[in-house]
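Dear support,

Our group has been running a series of protein-ligand predictions, and this particular one with S-adenosylmethionine is the one our PI (initials K.S.) wants archived with full inputs and outputs. We had some confusion internally about which version of the output was final, so please treat the block below as the authoritative record. The input we submitted was:
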Amino acid sequence: MFRRIASRYDRMNRLMTFGLDLHWRRKAASFLRPLQPERLLDLAAGTGDFALAACQVLPSLKEVYLVDITPAMLARAPAKKPPQVVWHFQVADAHQLPFADSMMDAIVVGYGVRNFENRLQALMEMRRVLRPGGRAVILETGMPTQLLWKLPFWFYFRLYVPLLGALYARDKAAYTYLPESTRAFPHRDAFLQLALQAGFMRGSYVPLLGGASIIYLLDT
Ligand SMILES: C[S@@+](CC[C@H](N)C(=O)[O-])C[C@H]1O[C@@H](n2cnc3c(N)ncnc32)[C@H](O)[C@@H]1O
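Confirmed final output from the archive:
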């Protein structure tokens, strides 16, 4: 699916979120500032927008590892590399990361965890490659809980997004999968429980736009 939509993925994100996704990735990455990370893993990096956002807000960064299972998505990332940071590209599976224990200062995952087949296994891998005192920042789609926001959000997610996917990305199935996989995702406390089960010490979350997206912060 991601191979099919790779060439339109960035533009679809801008159209779907009215440009807010760029701001959300920068905001999410800024939660790593206190750690002053030098080595970052961008897991399920896709076209590299989260790695770029991290480089924009984290001056301490020296190298970023961009990992994704879909070569066609990753192929669009090198053009975004800022000059001051080294980017490494690796096609690999989140369930079996090709890195040594404790190698990373921090991890970001943008709209990726929802797609993993075995989230517990992937979280355990993230925990393994993070150094003690490290942090994973996970940005995911969410489901608003406030009654007044739920109805307009339903129209937006169940009608506007698939319609836009059909018209612009010419792939309605991919953009029907988005609301469906969001509905099936263990949100908020349920996700934090899974992270604790995977060995993270603590977790918290920050809802964005009434819960349309959520930033999860997981500490080792
Ligand atoms: C919605 S895109 C997110 C891309 C990017 N992180 C962003 O913020 O826009 C999800 C990405 O997850 C990748 N992905 C899905 N399953 C994966 C897995 N098991 N291991 C690594 N990457 C995976 C897909 O190839 C796709 O590029």
